[in-house]
Design a protein that fits this description.
single chain
């Protein structure tokens, strides 16, 4: 018995519908592609930051509440990697007192699906009240390598 694994990518511009999955002309299944609603204009946000991380992501702005933070990202270009975002709430000594690491929208909308210029809002439940600084950034989950330099904001 020979076994192999594949991680096929669905093109960002593939039309919604049901598609057959084939290997060497054999149909091995079907996949349903749903339409992706993309936001190409900036959403309403409390704080506008327009801070760029690397050449890939811009933190266009954010909304901050005691128990959550909504990050409004803009894709600077298309990427093939599914990056993970991190938020660290730091105390006055720079120690992490709360944190969240997750792919956008709890993994339901990975960065490999974003198109250039698209805005993606991501709400993270996190206690931000005790923090002196909030550190925000991206990394590649498998290697742990960060993308660009993390942003630091004062709540």
């Amino acid at each position: 018995m020979l076994m192999d694994r594949y991680a096929p990518r669905i093109p960002r511009d593939l039309a919604a519908g049901v598609y057959q999955v084939t290997v060497n002309d054999f149909v091995i299944g079907r996949v349903t592609v749903k339409e992706v609603e993309r936001l190409m204009t900036a959403p309403t946000m409390t704080v506008i930051s327009k801070k760029v991380i690397s050449d890939q992501f811009e933190l266009a702005g954010y909304d901050l509440k005691d128990d959550s933070m909504t990050l409004h990202w803009r894709a600077m270009r298309e990427v093939d990697t599914n990056y993970t975002t991190f938020i660290h709430v730091l105390d006055a000594n720079g120690q992490i007192i709360a944190q969240n690491d997750a792919q956008p929208r709890n993994g339901s909308y990975p960065t490999s699906l974003w198109v250039k210029g698209e805005y993606v809002s991501d709400t993270i439940k996190l206690n931000t009240t005790a923090g002196a600084t909030i550190e925000i950034g991206w990394y590649e989950q498998e290697s742990g390598v960060r993308v660009g330099e993390a942003l630091k904001i004062k709540p």
